[in-house]
Task: structure prediction
Amino acid sequence: MAPLLVGSPPVNLRTKIVALAVAPLLVALLLVALAVRHQERDLARRERVLIEQSYMAQRRGELRSYVDLAVSIVRPLYEAGQDDEATRAEALRRLAALDYGSDGYFFVYDLQGRSLMHSRQPELVGQDLWDLRDSQGRYTIRDLIAGAQRGGGSYVEYEWRKPSLGTAAPKLGYVTAFPRWNWMVGTGLYLDDIQSTMDSLDRQISSNVTTTLLWIAGIAALCLAAVSAGGLALNLSEHRVAEAKLRLLARRVVQSQEEERGHLARELHDGTSQTLVSAKLLIESAVDALAREQRPVPPALPKALQRLGDSLTEVRRISHRLRPALLDTLGLPAAIERLGDEFGEDGTLTTTLDVEGEPFELSPDVKTALFRVTQEALTNVHKHAHARRVHIALRFDPSAGVRLDVEDDGAGFDVEAAQADPRRGIGLRNMRERLGAIGGQLHMRSGAGRTTVTAEVPAASARAEGAPA
Result:
């Protein structure tokens, strides 16, 4: 006969209820935290790539402008048809006098790898550097000469000693050839500052991710306390409070993402964009000054203006994609109209927008959610639907709320299959969750030749706080 255990009372029913309430909440919060961390890292990776590409495009344009300027100074001597030593010495003297910044200079080699001019390292002049390699084993001078011989100018990445540091640093060079003189002329910009900027951006994003997770942890602690109190009290009101807190948490996650997008967009607009605008204004002032003095404008200056304009357009496009300013200034209809124009820029898709009813002020969460739903829908159309036309309808009803319809004439898809397959329909689930967080609903109908995505937000949730009913 088994002995009776004394002093081991049965587990309290209330404890079981609290455990059943707390366990799913902990799992949900953990999944939310993991999802936030994954999305933040993915966004950081994509933004890093975009910013790095923008920086490199800016550097390439800057290098080309410098070399074009150097070539324009030497070209009169070269095109004069004189190949004597005095003419070449004068050309080398003019190139040696050109520099920019603390680490910007020009170099000249013959096409057999012998240094003819190097203003920052004169000890190299006369040396045969054909077999010189950098720390990665790349033939530096060979690669530069090969790029110059391809014609039309060429970009080459290598390592070289940085004058201001005295140590080797990654560098992007741009070279061109003077075949008749057997010369290769070029210059380069060091890339270590770009890596420093990227590392600083990574640290900032990491700090923002940590802050977001700490917010989630703090909200989780509050939710756990509320659920524990509800379990002890065993009443329905506490259950409703916990549900409301979870919805608030989901909204907070979305808000955090939008705040981070807005922050990065402002950094691009107020930092990089303003620097490009300043440089462009300086060059335009120089061109105007030459025109007033009736002096010829060097051909490199208009090219530099064009390069700066292209870089400025690219930075503004990235900033707009992260967080469109129209959404906060002119409202949802203007932002959606601009979004449709962007998707139709390549000419393969025609987008139209109809606004029905008198627009009223929407809450920031509702504006953001409807804009992101439109953006996701247009992205899906552009990638998968093979559509030619998209019609967007935005309907405002003071009593019913706001309704968004995105309709295309594409191939269509199986809505139920896309929602059931965990490997597909991520964008559709994101749209549904965004609307659920603000009290709205998402409906989808799809068939061959017609697909419609409908988002509805009731008036009680749609109106901005303090807006007239």
